[in-house]
Amino acid sequence: MVDCCPCFGGSQNGREEEMRPLIGTSRRHDNVSLPRKDYESLDYDRCYNTPYADYVEKQTKDHSVAKLEAIKWIVTFFVGYLTGMVALFIDSIVKLLTRLKFSAVDDSIRSCSEDGCLILSLLIMLCFNVGFVIIASSLVILEPIAGGSGIPEIKCYLNGVKVPRVGRLRTLVSKSVGVLFSVAGGLFVGKEGPMIHSGAIIGAGVPQFQSIAFKAINFKYSFFRTDREKRDFVSGGAAAGVAAAFGAPIGGVLFSLEEGCSFWNQKLTWRTFFCSMAATYSLNFFLSGIGSDEWGYFYLPGLINFGVFKYQGQHLWNAMDLLVFLAIGFLGGIFGAAFNAINKRLTIHRMSHVNKKHKVIRLLEAGLVAAVTTTIAFIGAMLVGECRPIPKSELINGTDTAVRTYFCDKGEYNDMATLFFNSQEEAIKQLFHQEGKFSLATLGIFFIVFFFLACWTYGVHVPSGLFVPSLLCGAAYGRFVATLLVNYIGYDKSIYSGTFALIGAAAFLGGVVRMTISLTVILIESTNEISYGLPLMLVLMVAKWSGDLFNEGLYDIHIKLRGVPVARMGSSTWNGENEGKRHNGEVT
């Protein structure tokens, strides 16, 4: 075996015996005994012993160092390219399914002449959403590791813990196909987390030149089949997933460094950046030709488009606004901590009760969440929404297609329906850029409903991301603050409400996941507005600090609940909260 030694990261008997009392036991969380399983460690350390010297000598004898390095860069490109193609597949099918669903429901609502016929519209929407979610949940039941966002599992893998089936082809199919139906099914989930997991699986599989599922695929090349080499490609694949989702190649590299890896080196930085770049611009190239004849333009964003911030006659932000942003960040951290605390209790309940029962129970839970979410969104849009004038600029530019005009006079739109009856990405753009007003009641109700439903949904047996729901929930919170300040407190009316929506989105997402550096760069790249750099940095730091007063980030909470022995920086012991040491110039 290559790269194996009885030290940190190895999987030898001595180390396993030392770890056995910690990784094979059941710990109690809040008086609830949760299921545990044994985990093995991966061989990330390089020990320069006789077997390793023989391996290096044989490999360099058959292939030159330059050839191996060239193959490594070529494989890195294909990891990024294939990740971009998976993103293109997910985005295209989700838009197709969503368009089909909303077209049928929209026609039914507009044909209603009486209030009673809205029940038929609700039933049509329920059939679409529950049916889609049942398909997504069925795929997760067939491959359980495909559930959730996949980011906790990838973090564990990149930190040296072998998570069973996390990088299999079957997991990729279940993840990428399942997320189509969970997003199109109206659940308050995103596709960016599954995209990161899908990119990591591609990074784990492509360099192996073999497949466990399809045994006929097995080339003689065995260059990158050690745990150490495989880990580096998984890091690149995870970064490529972020880059494809947000159109943020630099943010993808920083995400892999900040949130994923404890093993890093300078060469890996360059290859990960190249992989992210390949994913972003491969996706951009093909997106440029969908629905137009302008093939080859590379300025299109990733899957999530925040639009262009236009603030004619309004100021972007000033020193006084910065004080408000800090308060938004502090409250965003508290909201994020509350979200994590509630979701932790729900996850403990699922692990203790739902997961132990028959698989059909998990399927029924997913269907129940879809039905409740659909019903609440439909009732809120039809009964609670207020009619607001459509801004003239949107009528002139023909960009009013995203607003919903249910039961409103000509030239008006239903503000609540505009948020609930659009995709989450479109709803975020409405909160960032819509010149029309959203009522304070609409924003408050939407925030509360979305907060609790998104919290309930994360952990259901479907592929589900957390970034976009958190951004949408936070955008409503930020827009609520802007509306409150202008209409009721007498704040400067020249403020740009979209800025407050962006700051609220960053604050809430930062409070949930506790990311700072990478999230700042991702949001700057996604908005194409470098002027937001300072507010985003400060808000994300404040949100992290206030959230850390109560609990950890949601990904770390889920890792702990599963009993995964992940090493973290700053401690010399090995358990769910510890940190590692340095070996051979790498952080472990």
Automatic annotation (TrEMBL):
It comes from the Eukaryota. The keyword Electron transport does not apply. It is found in: Membrane. The chain crosses the membrane at residues 73-97, 118-142, 233-256, 268-287, 323-342, 363-384, 438-459, 466-489, 495-517. InterPro entries: Cl-channel/antiporter, Cl-channel_core, Cl_channel-6, ClC. This is Uncharacterized protein. Keywords: CBS domain, Membrane, Repeat, Transmembrane, Transmembrane helix. The keyword Nucleotide-binding does not apply. Pfam families: Voltage_CLC (PF00654). It is a multi-pass membrane protein. Its main location: membrane.
